[in-house]
Amino acid sequence: LNKREEQPDAMFTRLPTYYLEIAHMLLTFAEDDLVESQGIRRLLQDLREVRQSKTMEGLRMLNSLQLQMDNLSMAEINEIRPLFGHSFDMLRQLDGLAQATETEQQQSQFADQSYAEMDDAFGSRYVH
């Protein structure tokens, strides 16, 4: 499972929605009943670190149109939830700036084109 998760282009492996919570309860309340509980803890920690790294990489590729990270557990979603409000506010501001810049460029091109057309139409009589 960890090997599959470690592949950089691989999607998140489908796991039970509450796998971290269930693992925590088992390791807290039934640790004596588990064989190699410390090994289980290490594997879970490794899996969690790999998935957190993938999550952060996915957040770096955010855009204002879509965010898709399938197969996240509830704990993983709750870890990144605080980032969303601020991140999407920033994306909306950047989109607004990009649109304003595009509009200004279009208006500038239109003005330049209009002046060139007037020069062609009227010749150089208005230049003197």
Tell me what the structure shows:
- By secondary structure, the protein is mostly helical.
- Helices cover 70% and strands 0% of the residues.
- The chain starts with a helix and ends in a 6-residue tail after the last helix.
- The mean pLDDT is 77.
List the helices and strands and how they pair.
Elements lengths: L1 H5 L12 H11 L7 H24 L13 H49 L6
Quick recap of the structure?
With 128 residues, this protein is mostly helical. Helices cover 70% and strands 0% of the residues.
Helix content: 55-70%
Q: Regions with pLDDT < 50 over 5+ consecutive residues?
A: none
Tell me about the biggest sheet? Answer: none
One letter per element, helices H and strands E, the order comes to HHHH
Task: Work out the radius of gyration.
Answer: 27 Å
Number of strands: 0
Structural class: mainly alpha
Beta-strand portion reads under 5%
How far apart, in Å, are the first and last alpha carbons? 79 Å
Q: Looking at the structure, what is the overall shape?
A: rod-shaped
**Mean pLDDT, all residues:** 77
Output the number of helix runs: 4
Primary descriptors:
mainly alpha; 70% helix; 4 helices; 128 residues
